[in-house]
Amino acid sequence: MDDSDLPLFQHVKGFVSEEDRAAILSGIALGHDPSSAHFAARTKAIRFVTIIQGKPMAFAQNYFVQNADYNDFSGGLRRVYSLIPSEWIEESGPVGKMVLQFAEYYRIPEKTVILVQIQTSFMRELNRTESITGQGIHTDGADRACIVCLHRGSGIFGPANQFHAKLDGSKPLTEPKILEHGEACFFKDNEVYHYVTPGGCKKGADASAASAPAPSSETQEASVAGATAGAVNQRTIMIMHAPAEIYMMGIENKNNTLGSRVSSVKLRDENEKGTETVEKAEKGADNAAYTSELDYMGLAQSLGSLSLTADRHEY
Ligand SMILES: [Fe+2]
Q1: Interval between CA 195 and ligand 1 midpoint (Å)
Q2: According to the model, what pLDDT value does residue 171 have?
Q3: How far is the CA of 307 from the centre of ligand 1 (A)?
Q4: What CATH number is given to the structural domain containing 214?
Q5: Average pLDDT over all residues of the chain
Q6: How many angstroms is it from 172 CA to the middle of ligand 1?
Q7: Distance from the CA of 166 to the center of ligand 1, in angstroms?
Q8: pLDDT per residue over 110-159, tens digit each?
Q9: Buried b vs exposed e over 106-144: b needs ≥16 C-beta within 10 Å?
């Protein structure tokens, strides 16, 4: 694909209609996200999709793997999640329409695997803010991405999204910005770093706030808890990444060489201590002790709300 004429990132309003946004929020069943034990509680549902003959098609795979090179926090672990309903992926479905817009914007070739994630962060009333991603300035490891704000509770402050030219934060390209309802931000994940600022919940708002569902005690599979989004302390975003074979298989993306910053907390280490149950990968991968699978948390992780200007930005 040749999208060299497109900016490093671009903020757009009205990416999703109010009707579709409401349909997703009222109908989504998100499962516990085990990787959020180290940051604000989060639930998530995922779906791998591709486009054939102009129609979005859903894959059945309900887990993903992030190459450890890109996510030092949880890289190398395998995660199973709830699936976004396949009917939503159809051409006329609320998610399918956004997938088509994403592919059209970046001219993504047909049959490219695209990962779609919908996730809700549950912000707590704290005396401090907390991370919603568990990551600092980073890349998600893909080539192209798009984050969409589906809900931002009235009690929330922060989190905001920011793009950086350098991993050490010495070259921010924007001020942190917040994505409002229905807004989206496209970004070239292999050309620019991003960061999600910490967030919290205003005093008093927590009283009517929703709690994140507890993880299943039996398995690490997502526990579909019907965590309907929309509460005052919730922030729900959808994020798309392409190409997504890297998350499907845990393989390296040779097109993304931005590298990663060392995280102070590693789920892989937790796993070694037995405090985090993860499936060990059958095939090994790289340099991590437990290589092979992982959650792509972040990024997707929620990235959060991104709100940037619609202008072009260059280093
Ligand atoms: Fe990210």
Answers
A1: 7
A2: 95
A3: 14
A4: 2.60.120.620
A5: 76
A6: 15
A7: 14
A8: 999 999 999 998 888 877 788 888 788 999 989 999 999 999 998 888 88
A9: bebeeebbbbbbbbbbbbbeeeebbbbbbbbbbbbbbbb
In the reported structure, the alpha carbon of residue 188 is separated from the centroid of ligand 1 by a whole-number distance in angstroms of 12
Instruction: Give yes or no for a contact between 171 and 8, defined as CB atoms under 8 angstroms apart.
Output: no
Residue 96 forms part of a structural domain: yes
Q: Is residue 121 part of a domain?
A: yes
* CA 53 to ligand 1 centroid distance, Å: 30
CA dihedral 262, 266, 272, 273 (to 10 degrees): 130
pLDDT < 70 stretches in the chain: 1, 34-38, 66-76, 205-229, 259-315
Cα 305 to ligand 1 centroid, rounded to whole Å? 11
Give the residue among 38, 28, 62 at the shortest CA–CA distance from 234: 28
Which pLDDT does position 310 carry in this prediction? Answer: 26
CA–centroid distance, 179 to ligand 1, in Å, is 15
pLDDT (tens digit, 9 = 90+) per residue, 263-293?
444 444 444 333 222 222 222 222 222 222 2
Q: Is residue 139 part of a domain?
A: yes
Residues, CB-to-ion distance under 5 Å, ligand 1: 140, 298-299, 303
* pTM of this structure: 0.76
Show the domain range for 169: 9-273
Q: Where are the alpha helices (DSSP H) in 28-153?
A: 86-89, 94-106
Tell me if 97 is assigned to some domain.
yes
Give tens-digit pLDDT for 290-306: 222 223 333 333 333 22
Two tokens at 15?
């990416």
